[in-house]
Amino acid sequence: MKNLRITVEGKSYDVQVELLDEEAGSTPAPRRGSSGGAGSRAASPASAPVKAAAAPKAAPAAAGQGAVASPLAAVVVSVDVAVGDAVAEGQKVVTLEAMKMNTIVSASAAGTVKAILVAAGDGVEEGQALIEIA
User: Fold this and answer.
1) pLDDT-derived band of residue 112, with 50, 70 and 90 as boundaries?
2) DSSP letter at 45?
3) Which residues span the domain enclosing 76?
4) What is the spatial order of strands in the sheet that 86-87 belongs to?
5) Tens-digit pLDDT profile for residues 25-83
6) Is residue 51 classed as helix, strand or coil in its secondary structure?
7) Nearest 10 degrees: CA dihedral of 103, 108, 83, 131?
8) Could you give the number of structural domains in the chain?
């Protein structure tokens, strides 16, 4: 068994991998059957061509003072206010969906909506600014 750390889209995962054909620490070459009989094997997923990784996305804007932040990673279902609207503390401003459950995001303070930073259908990260209130 080997312990490895894999990073996917900026998140690290610690995994254990069992090496099946361990010969002096080298990876075995894929076997190729000369006939389509019972002795031949299908190509393993490891020998399949690997797609190039997508270019990293720009980091989402972190919530600053006056911003309403996303409490979790989710998809925006609706933005329930418009720029220039007066909002009260605790008023619903955005609805998010994660794992088929809706989460209501409320204004953290009373004020006027200065900017809307997301739209319905956008994916957001935890802590990402959704709306700015002045």
Assistant:
1) very high
2) G
3) 67-133
4) 67-69, 129-133, 111-116, 86-87
5) 555 555 555 444 444 444 444 444 555 444 444 445 555 568 999 999 999 999 999 99
6) coil
7) -60
8) 1
Q: CB under 8 Å, gap of 24 or more: what pairs does 86-93 form?
A: 86/110, 86/111, 86/112, 87/111, 87/112, 87/113, 87/133, 93/68, 93/130, 93/131
Which tokens belong to 92? 């619903």
Residue 93 in any domain: the answer is yes
Confidence of residue 5 (pLDDT cuts 50, 70, 90): confident
The answer to whether residue 56 sits within a structural domain is no
Helix (H, G, I), strand (E, B) or coil at 77: strand
Within a domain: 57 = no
State which amino acid sits at residue 34: S
Report the CATH number that the domain containing residue 124 is assigned in CATH. Answer: 2.40.50.100
- Location of structure tokens 């490895």: 4
